[in-house]
Amino acid sequence: MLRTITDENFNEALNEGKPVVLDFWAEWCGPCRMVAPVIEELAGQYDGKVIVGKVNVDDNNELVSQYGIRNIPTVLFFRDRQVVDKQVGFASKSVFIEKIDTLLS
């Protein structure tokens, strides 16, 4: 299940003890719209194993600042509350699967 992650509920997601994948995006961003269906598919594919969420950069300045997001889409991969990987820009589904599988190993 794809979640909407905000400045307010971010820590709740991290505290669940599962790996977290966050897609930083904006409605006006063309490449973000290209990666969105991939992120949605991954949310379904890894439901129950990984928390997959989207962070709207226009509405969540604290997270954008905290993680130094300068380009979108940027996808951050968290394990044990720490960023362990990052993907900036569009990438194929197989790239994301490889990164998520690494989180789970």
**How many strands?**
5
Termini separation (Å)? 21 Å
Shape: globular
Spatial strand order of the main sheet: 1-3-2-4-5
Biggest sheet record = 5 strands, mixed
Gyration radius from CA atoms, angstroms: 12 Å
Number of helices: 4
Overall SS class: alpha/beta
Quote the average pLDDT: 97
**Which residue ranges are poorly predicted, with pLDDT under 50 across at least 5 consecutive positions?**
none
Percent strand equals 25-35%
| Helix-strand sequence | EHEHEHEEH
The helicity comes to 25-40%
Structure, explained:
37% of the residues lie in helices and 27% in strands. It contains 4 helices and 5 strands. Strands 1-3-2-4-5 form a 5-stranded mixed sheet, with helices on one face. α2 (30-45) links the parallel β2 and β3. The longest helix has 16 residues, at 30-45. The radius of gyration is 12 Å and the shape is globular.
Keywords:
105 residues, five-stranded mixed beta sheet, 4 helices, 5 strands, 37% helix
Please summarize what this structure is.
By secondary structure, the chain is an alpha/beta fold.
What does the secondary structure layout of this molecule look like, with pairings?
Blueprint: E1 2-4, H1 10-14, E2 20-25, H2 30-45, E3 51-56, H3 61-66, E4 74-79, E5 82-88, H4 93-104
Parallel strand pairs: 1-3, 2-3
Antiparallel strand pairs: 2-4, 4-5
